[in-house]
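Box 4.2: Ligand-aware structure prediction
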Amino acid sequence: MFKRTIFLMSMLIAVYGCGGSGGGGGDDQDTTAPTVSSTSPEDTATGVPVNSNVIATFSETMSSSSISETTFYVRTGGSNISGSISYGGTFATFDPMSTLQAFKGYTATVTTGVKDSNGNALASNHSWGFITGSSSSPTYSFATDVQPIFDSNCIVCHISLGQAAFLPLTNDVSYSNLVNKPSTYTSGGTLVIPGNSTDSILYKRISGASVGAQMPKGGQALSPTEQNTIKTWIDEGALNN
Ligand code: HEC
């Protein structure tokens, strides 16, 4: 018993002694090369929506400064497409500047220039390809989704001879009275700017932004769903669809 205790103690001293004086070993240094563990779209995917981002997910945390347009790019027909690159968590995102073209092949590549947070580079370039589908169709139709909101909530006033006869929103004239038309009450404002709900007076009025009374005037605000329908319709280009 006594002997064994002495033995254990000397073992402990040996172990600690070694650990204390050593230190230069560096066994815990990460020398494993990172890999691309998944991609979006997946390799060989078809029918990819034209508004997709291209994403590479890595096996570990990467050095964000190593991820740039020279180390992560997307090409079609032999040339790079423009886009912005961001990195967060373990994935890098390529957000194309313009919508991708329909029914077209694209190749994405992450090069050996990308490194993990310990400076280990990808072992070899990783490329994957995909083919887009048709151009995305709008979520909402002006005639069947937006106009009914005006019919139930607005035309009581926004009709010729109504309280807001300056801006009729009846179905024969609403589209042409709104899209790219100057505002009467907000100087310099435009009622509907296709693709930009934030600056469109119509959306400001229904969402309660400070440009005069919230519409419907004196009544209950439109539901979040109705507001979102109008917002999305504007942001998708305010089509007369
Ligand atoms: C009770 C009557 C009434 C109702 C209901 C009403 N409005 Fe109005 N609206 C007005 C009046 C009056 C004005 C102008 C005076 C003002 O801004 O308060 C106006 C102004 C506006 C403007 C600003 C136009 C400009 O040129 O600046 C927009 C946009 C608008 N309404 C949209 C709507 C929409 C969309 C609805 C339905 C969701 C609606 N309104 C419901 C009475 C109404």
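In the box above, the bound molecule is heme C. Residues 97 and 170 are 37 Å apart (CA to CA).
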